[in-house]
Amino acid sequence: MELRKALTDNVVVLDGGMSTALEQAGHDLSDSLWSARLLLTAPDAIRAAHLAYFHAGAQVAITSSYQATFEGFAERGLSPEQTANLLRASVSLARAAASEVDGPRWVAASVGPYGAMLADGSEYRGRYGLSARRLEEFHRPRVEVLADAAPDLLAVETIPDVDEAEAVLRVVAGSGVPMWLSYSVRDGRTCAGQDLEDAFAVAAGVSEVVAVGVNCCRPEDVDEAVEVARRVTGLPVVVYPNSGEQWNASARAWEGGAAAVAEPARQWVEAGARLVGGCCQVGPSDIARLAATLTSHEG
């Protein structure tokens, strides 16, 4: 079933943080490539992480390509062709895991922000000082390779800045490849400080966009974003917050207390969320609780 059609009548459960599942399985991700490094060194671990989320009740696997870029892998000596192969592998690994479970499953190819490649927390700030043309040049080759790998859709995620959202939309518009657009937000604005109404409005009228929303934010930042996204675009809303902890880029560690995502998810669904999951520090056991909560809520 096409995901766009599924969203008309159903709530679809997303997975949790790829890095979280990998760390819980004992993998060291203290590297600027983060979980994308395992595409090169331990692809079976990525497949296993996807499978753990599917067994937990997730219906959508977000690929391990968030921090996989031509620039990042070039610094490790990889050619553009080798990088393209790794990007394609991120989709095929998720697809392989999906084939091992029953029921409808979808693969969303992660398109992370420019700031993720910098590995300095810039995805929580935006305002990189780059031109619109440079942002398009950064995103286009990766989007083209991922789209060619035939995922069910592109997950354009953790975008902190309206300028970057517009750049990615220009790359995807007219391609016919479905996508969702998800911002990183804080206190009712994008992480770059922009108005949420303006941020979501850029997706209106782009036929490839099947959902808009937020991710990699605190759970308490979700409610307002759902309301604004639904009102401005009329599209299904995607939400997958962090556990509530905050990323310290200097220490490369999560700090602060965690909060459950399962219980507030009922409220998000009632407000218009149709794709619901978790991001950083949300693992398979958390997704199992979320899936059970949403199933009982629908019942």
From TrEMBL:
It comes from Lentzea miocenica. The lineage of its organism: Bacteria, Bacillati, Actinomycetota, Actinomycetes, Pseudonocardiales. Residues 1-294 form the Hcy-binding domain. GO terms for biological process: methylation. SUPFAM superfamilies: Homocysteine S-methyltransferase. This is Homocysteine S-methyltransferase. Gene3D superfamilies: Homocysteine-binding-like domain (3.20.20.330). It is an enzyme of class 2 (transferase). GO terms for molecular function: methyltransferase activity. Coiled coil: none annotated. Keywords: Metal-binding, Methyltransferase, Transferase, Zinc. InterPro entries: BHMT-like, HCY_dom, HCY_dom_sf, Hcy_S-methyltransferase.
